């Protein structure tokens, strides 16, 4: 349990800057995710309309937001309270939990 608390604490500290970096406030941080990882992942998922998706380790809800726009039914979990706080601000109607 000690390591979980330490990990959670560290992600809480990084939450805001991580979200800013991943959402283009600081463009140098999002290139890999925006141009490579996310398109490849979304292509592998295919048509998600109406599918139930568990976003485990959802962070600040970036994928959850995209998948919801594609009409998937998304639930998200993350170890960080601060990440979930941001995710809920970005996705107020989703079931997002600390776990």
Describe the structure.
With 99 residues, the chain is an alpha/beta fold. Helix 1 (2-22) packs parallel to helix 4. It has a single domain (2-98), classed as Vaccinia Virus protein VP39 (Rossmann fold, 3-Layer(aba) Sandwich). It starts with a helix and ends with a strand. It contains 4 helices and 3 strands. The chain has a 3-stranded parallel sheet with strand order 1-2-3, covered by helices on one side.
Output the CATH topology: Rossmann fold
- Domain module count: 1
Q: In total, how many beta strands?
A: 3
- Outline the biggest β-sheet: 3 strands, parallel
Secondary structure: elements and pairs:
Blueprint: H1 2-22, H2 31-45, E1 52-56, H3 62-69, E2 73-78, H4 81-90, E3 95-98
Parallel strand pairs: 1-2, 2-3
Question: What would the keywords be for this entry?
Answer:
globular, Rossmann fold, 3 strands, 99 residues, alpha/beta, 15% strand, single chain, three-stranded parallel beta sheet
């Amino acid at each position: 349990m000690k390591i979980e608390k330490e990990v959670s604490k560290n992600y809480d500290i990084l939450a805001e800057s991580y979200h800013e970096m991943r959402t283009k406030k600081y463009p140098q941080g999002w290139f890999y995710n925006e141009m490579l990882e996310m398109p490849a992942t979304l292509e592998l998922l295919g048509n998600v309309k109406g599918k139930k998706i568990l976003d485990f380790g959802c962070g600040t809800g970036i994928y959850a937001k995209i998948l919801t726009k594609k009409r998937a039914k998304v639930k998200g979990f993350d170890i960080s309270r601060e990440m979930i706080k941001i995710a809920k601000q970005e996705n107020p109607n989703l079931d997002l939990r600390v776990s």
